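in:
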């Protein structure tokens, strides 16, 4: 609700970021997942074509980790692991990403403060804040009324809606 995925997406899709890395991947974890499925989706998202997808699906978790690790060893990469609900999700993927000292990055989004703080000892956890009422109003107007003149009644209704969103950007249109 506060924009974690949106912020990660802006970084991920930024042209300067895209140029900086040899390869890019995005995977959403959510509550129900298997590590094997996540690894397959990450490999597919990177677009590695050295092994056919049928062969990848036959590989166990450990073999997929090794395949991903070897595929990334000589590359600089950025990967977004979105919506991690528990620490084990990252722990089960961590081994597949080489720390090749070339600036590669893994961005993890989570709604769980404990997960964010304990993902890795070198992790920087950025906590997004709720929008102030003036920021909420500005965002609402930019998205909804950027070319429409509001009358008094409509503005009163709109301000009430923005107040009820309580600073959550995704609750605003």
């Amino acid at each position: 609700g506060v924009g974690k995925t949106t912020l990660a997406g802006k970084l991920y899709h930024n042209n300067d970021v895209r140029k900086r890395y040899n390869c890019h991947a995005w995977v959403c974890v959510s509550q129900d997942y298997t590590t094997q499925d996540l690894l397959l989706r990450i490999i597919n998202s990177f677009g590695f074509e050295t092994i056919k997808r049928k062969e990848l699906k036959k590989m166990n978790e450990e073999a997929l980790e090794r395949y991903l690790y070897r595929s990334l060893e000589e590359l600089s990469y950025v990967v977004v692991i979105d919506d991690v609900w528990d620490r084990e999700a990252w722990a089960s993927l961590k081994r597949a990403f080489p720390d090749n000292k070339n600036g590669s990055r893994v961005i993890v989004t989570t709604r769980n403060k404990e997960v964010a703080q304990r993902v890795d000892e070198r992790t920087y956890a950025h906590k997004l804040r709720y929008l102030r009422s003036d920021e909420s109003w500005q965002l609402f107007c930019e998205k909804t009324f950027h070319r429409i003149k509001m009358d008094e009644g409509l503005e009163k209704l709109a301000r009430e809606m923005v107040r009820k969103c309580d600073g959550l950007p995704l609750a605003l249109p």
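note: The longest helix spans residues 152-165.
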